[in-house]
């Protein structure tokens, strides 16, 4: 039996932000995703972000950057695949960049948009 570890607050906040964009974001050609589909996407993305942050060895954690700018970032694409969804760069806000570091998640949504705090410890 494998024990499931809850994702870190940073990973959860970042993943939820992207998942919310699937259901009600500013995208160029947005498909309609259900809340349940967005939840599956968020769970998969949070797990991938945690792996990248090095949660297994917190003192070695580092920043993760996720973007959507004329392509779907590999973490977003992998989360979509793991959750059984067909997500394209047109389903998420273009020219968006997110920075995830231990204790803080920020995002710049859209061309030259100011950086906003999504979550902070």
Concise overview:
It contains three helices and four strands; from the N terminus they run H-H-E-H-E-E-E. It has helices at 9-24, 35-53, 74-82, and strands at residues 64-68, 96-101, 104-109, 116-120.
Describe this structure in words.
The chain has a single domain, classed as Anti-proliferative protein, N-terminal domain (Actin, Chain A, domain 4, Alpha-Beta Complex). A hairpin with a 6-residue loop joins β3 and β4. The mean pLDDT is 88. By secondary structure, it is of the alpha+beta class. α1 packs antiparallel against α2 (35-53) and α2 packs across α3 (74-82). Helices cover 36% and strands 18% of the residues.
CATH topology: Actin, Chain A, domain 4
Q: DSSP strand (E) fraction?
A: 15-25%
Largest beta-sheet details: 4 strands, antiparallel
Query: Can you count the beta strands?
Result: 4
Task: Show unreliable segments.
Answer: none
CATH architecture: Alpha-Beta Complex
């Amino acid at each position: 039996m494998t024990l499931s570890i809850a994702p870190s607050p940073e990973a959860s906040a970042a993943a939820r932000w992207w998942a919310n964009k699937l259901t009600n974001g500013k995208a160029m050609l947005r498909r309609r995703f259900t809340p349940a589909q967005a939840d599956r996407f968020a769970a998969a993305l949070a797990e991938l972000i945690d792996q990248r942050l090095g949660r297994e060895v917190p003192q070695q954690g580092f920043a993760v950057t996720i973007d959507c700018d004329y392509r779907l970032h590999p973490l977003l694409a992998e989360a979509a695949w793991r959750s059984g969804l067909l997500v394209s760069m047109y389903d998420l806000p273009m020219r968006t960049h997110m920075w995830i570091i231990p204790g803080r998640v920020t995002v710049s949504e859209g061309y030259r948009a100011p950086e906003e705090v999504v979550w902070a410890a």
